[in-house]
Design a protein that fits this description.
By secondary structure, the protein is an alpha/beta fold. The protein folds into two domains: 343 residues, Zn peptidases (Aminopeptidase, 3-Layer(aba) Sandwich), CATH 3.40.630.10; 209 residues, Glucose Oxidase, domain 1 (3-Layer(bba) Sandwich), CATH 3.50.30. It has a 15-stranded mixed β-sheet that branches. The N terminus is likely disordered.
Length: 567
């Protein structure tokens, strides 16, 4: 998500000595030649200034600020020459649900093999020792004497010949899972799971999803600061209070009762009570052929849920293709922000979200104008302003689960989130470099513009899986995402790091993220030209881009290819 991307930007400028990623693979047919786009920075300035004004009240979903945002985006999309993208409507309804847990029972770990007088249960308090929520919209959650099973990294990856759940029936049981990937400790980005570069299998989202697919009653990830890339305080804050989700078609019946995390020291004590050595089992889980280990202990807990249902909207504008209108290229950005937030010392309590992400939303409008000026490309181009990114990629997740344009007919896309106002740069920072054929499109655009690509210097953090493009990628659609450059034309890497640090400390997710008339828009102009060129080439191309052969999303794309000739 954007917050973590901004944190990374600070680290990027300070980590010049970090290892670089492998050279991206760009082999494939020649790419079509396209002209540079006529991108109006005046449009960027006007739309960013308007959306981040106090009149829009921080653009929180379900508020008056949303209504103003939607009306304004429709006005700008129509003026740019787009057509309503959803069967005559500009909108896609996104039903949302908010679940707030309270009255937590402690997490009780017991040994049913021993009589109560011989074994005192382990008791862990919510927040201090463990955290957990439920995705099920029911008033009461009760996990009762659920058998604990250590499932290593909780991965089922057929294309890699790896299945931590092989031979175990998880129905009614609680999966205890390690964070990140089995080879995360490597210093390079090679290995079955890309070494230190986290894959989708290393993300906590995947681990909970797979546990649910296996029929588990609950899933608990063992926290470890280094492979998680954040401390327990982040887990504690993120897994407390209201949790929003896109409404699931099955009413969340296929979800576990409880998804959560347990402190590392608590996990070690639990394994010891089971007569197991946590370190030894963790080491065994890094090797192929690992088998899940029943711990012989049970977990019991419960809590109340308050459920609130509300709705928001994605905004979709379409430029129909001139030759192959049934094939699509996507540009995405999230329009939402936080709305009201803790007040600053001056009393300002509106989180305006100028950089995050009025800039990305404005980019949709400016790029739409440039595309219509140039005339329709061969493929249709959809410009999608997504809702509820700040609440967990909910608008993109809902669209990808209920696509207006079939994903099997979607050639690929480009996501834009929190554009850099640091000024012009020699480079861009590519998130997810080496994953798909779309690297070739960006490489061609960079070469044309005389710029270079800097790799993600913190691949172990899995930032590719934390913004809206991920919702599409996990369903097989190749998506391109890059941040502003590290190496500024004026001041180099030190200046880039200073800008990122100032934004993170003083304005990010705070009332200070306001429009600044003194911003240097030349870097934005550079980056938008790359977005235009890469997307225009993709919209003109006949090829059907795919993920690289060893990527975790390749088999999904292969199964859904809809273009003539396949992938």
């Amino acid at each position: 998500m954007t917050r973590l991307l901004i944190v990374m930007l600070t680290a990027l400028g300070l980590a010049a000595c970090a290892a670089t990623a492998d050279t991206p693979r760009t082999a494939g047919p020649p790419l079509p030649m396209v002209e540079r786009g006529d991108i109006a920075i005046a449009t960027m300035q006007e739309v960013t200034r308007t959306l981040s004004s106090d009149a829009f009240e921080g653009r929180a979903p379900g508020t008056a600020g949303e209504r103003k945002t939607l009306a304004y985006l429709v006005e700008r999309f129509a003026a740019a020459g787009l057509k309503p993208g959803n069967r005559g409507s500009w909108f896609q309804d996104v039903p949302l649900i908010e679940i707030t847990a309270s009255a937590y029972d402690p997490l009780i770990i017991a040994d049913p093999r021993k009589p109560p007088e011989e074994a005192e249960p382990l008791r862990y308090d919510f927040g201090t020792d463990w955290v957990g929520v439920s995705y099920r919209p029911q008033k009461r959650i009760d996990l009762r004497q659920s058998e604990l099973v250590f499932v290593g990294y909780g991965i089922n990856a057929p294309e890699k010949g790896w299945n931590d759940y092989a031979g175990i029936d998880m129905r009614g049981k609680t999966a205890v899972i390690l964070v990140n990937d089995p080879d995360h400790a490597r210093k390079d980005t090679r290995g079955l799971f890309n070494g230190r570069a986290m894959t989708y299998y290393g993300r906590w989202t995947y681990k909970f999803e797979e546990a649910a697919r296996q029929g588990a009653a609950a899933a608990l990830i063992v926290h470890d600061t280094k492979p998680a890339a954040y401390g327990w305080n982040v887990v504690q804050a993120g897994w407390s209070g209201p949790q929003s989700h896109a409404v699931r078609d099955d009413g969340a019946k296929g979800e576990t009762l409880v998804n959560g995390w347990v402190q590392n020291e608590a996990a070690r004590a639990i394994f010891a009570a089971a007569g197991q050595d946590f370190a030894m089992l963790s080491a065994a889980a890094t090797r192929p052929g690992f088998k899940a280990v029943p711990l012989g202990l049970t977990a019991t807990t419960g809590f109340d849920n308050a459920v609130r249902r509300y709705a928001s909207k994605n905004v979709i504008g379409l430029l129909p293709g001139a030759e192959r209108p049934g094939e699509y290229v996507l540009y995405t950005a999230h329009w939402d922000h936080l709305g009201r937030c803790p007040a600053s010392q001056s009393g300002d309590d509106i989180c305006n979200g100028a950089i995050d992400n009025a800039t990305g939303t404005a980019a949709l409008v400016a790029l739409a104008e440039a595309f219509t000026k140039a005339g329709p490309p061969a493929r249709s181009v959809a410009f999608i302003a997504l809702t509820a990114e700040e609440q967990g990629l909910l608008g993109s997740e809902y669209y990808a689960a209920h696509p207006v344009f079939p994903l099997a007919r979607t050639a690929g896309g480009i996501n834009m989130d929190a554009l850099s106002l640091a000024g012009p740069a020699h480079d861009v920072t590519v998130i997810g470099q080496g994953k798909s054929r779309l690297d070739a499109y960006l490489a061609a655009a960079l070469k044309r513009e005389g710029r270079t690509a800097s790799p993600d210097r913190a691949p172990e953090s899995g930032f590719y899986y934390r913004s809206d493009h991920f919702s599409f990628a996990r369903r097989g659609v190749p998506m391109l995402y890059f941040d502003g450059g590290e190496n500024l034309l004026h001041g180099g890497r030190a200046a880039g790091a200073a800008f990122a640090r100032d934004y993170t400390e003083k304005r990010y997710h705070a009332p200070g993220d306001e429009y600044d008339p003194g911003w240097d828009w030349r870097g934005v102009a550079q980056d938008l030209q790359l977005n235009y060129l890469a997307g225009r080439m993709l919209a003109q191309a006949r090829e059907w881009p795919n993920w690289n052969k060893d990527d975790e999303f390749r088999r999904i794309r292969d199964a859904s290819c809809g273009a003539p000739g396949g992938c």
